[in-house]
Structures are given as structure tokens and as C-alpha cells.
């Protein structure tokens, strides 16, 4: 969002090779486009017609639909007080004009890429929890609610997205959009991921349970479906995942004996 046309054109040219760029010439228009388009990042001048950049940032960070979106503010104001005002409203970064375009691009890219890295970590690492993706209180509250509901229905083979949305207290379409924005996964994928993370924990910590029993306790329709989903997620079947755990422990024990000697 930038009301200076020449600067706006320069920023569009800078970011277009890397992003689909949506522009706005005032804060109100920027807010409306943020609500409708859910961009990966918002870059806004502080001094804007109709709504300032700091007020825009405040609105973005106070609404559940948009609070996850990183906001970078641009300003010609150099005082510490103005910087603090922007950061108090939840701005993720604050850059003073004139700025180095490579530094601006790098800092914006870092904010976007950091979320992608965390999403991949959550998806691929069995021990990573979804709370690492919740960067603000509103997102944390939603993720905690969704986790609590899923935990209560882990063994329910009929549990689905409709039940999740109803018990979380949010419309299905809004839940789809929000979870996708936060986690990079649809609600259905999120449910499966949480079940598979619990499965990985049970495979490692509950040797008395076989794969079929774990499948039943986690709401999979069959051991075959469970094994297929587990391999797609972690590139290893459940039995091999459990064996690897035993081998790791054996290697650790041997290492300790060698050190003691």
C-alpha cells in the first residue's frame, strides 16, 4: 500500500518477479484487499490517506482472518517513538525511507520464508507441534481449540471437518481458509497430521501396542490405511519407524558402554 505512484510502481517492479503483487493507494483500500485476498505479506507506507499504515496494521493483527499475515511498515519518520508505535501495533518489521531495495526484499522474503520453513517442520517432523506456527494470541487460541477437539476424537473413525468446525465454533469455510493460512494444510490434512504425530509417539513409547491396535486407537479405518498415510507422511512404514527407534537406543547404549570403559 503506497499513495506515491512512482514509489508504488518501483515496488511493484521489485516484487513482481517473486510474488503476485496486489496494490492499493490508500489504507482503507488496502484493508479491504487484505480481507479479500489474504496475501502472504503486507507492505505499507505509514502515512496513507483514509487510514494510516499503523491503523491498518492494528486492524490486520486484531482480526482472526488476517492476524497471521506479516506486516512491514515503510516510513520517512525516523524517530524512535514512531518506530515503537508501529511495533506496538504488531508490525513484524519497520523500514525507514530511503531504503536499500535489496535489504527491503530480503527482509520481506525472510518473513514469508520463515513461515514456510515452520510449516514444513510441522508437517515432516513427528515431534513438531502446531503451536510453533501460532505467532500471535488469536492464532494460538484457534490452534489450541482445534487440537483439543481433535484429541477428544482421536479414536473416532467418523470424526470429520464438519465436527471439528462445529466444536471449534467457526464456520467450515473460515476454518478451511484460516488453517490453510497458518499450517499450509487443509483441515482434513491437519486432522490426519495430528493423528500421525500421535501414532509416531505411540510407536516409540508404547511397545506393547501393535500397529493394528494403534490404528484403532487413532481413528483410522484400517491398519492398511494407517500404514499408507504414515509412509506418505514420514517416508517409512510404522514397523520400520519402530525398529529404527530400537536401533537408535541400542547404538546409544553401546556408545555409553564404550565411553565408560
Could you characterize the architecture of this molecule?
The modification 4-aspartylphosphate is found at residue 45. Keywords: DNA-binding, Phosphoprotein, Transcription, Transcription regulation. This is DNA-binding response regulator. Residues 245-261 have a biased composition (Basic and acidic residues). Residues 1-112 form the Response regulatory domain. This protein is mainly alpha-helical and 261 residues long. The protein has 2 domains: 5-120, Rossmann fold; 125-249, Homeodomain-like (Arc Repressor Mutant, subunit A, Orthogonal Bundle). 62% of the residues lie in helices and 5% in strands. It has 12 helices and 3 strands. The protein has helices at 5-15, 27-37, 53-62, 80-88, 101-124, 137-152, 161-168, 172-183, 187-205, 211-217, 223-234, 238-260; strands at 42-45, 71-75, 93-96. Strands 1-2-3 form a 3-stranded parallel beta sheet, with helices on both faces. Helix 4 links the parallel strand 2 and strand 3. The chain starts with a helix and ends with a helix. The relative contact order is 0.08. The model is unreliable at 249-261 (pLDDT under 50).
Structural features:
2 domains, Rossmann fold, Arc Repressor Mutant, subunit A, 5% strand
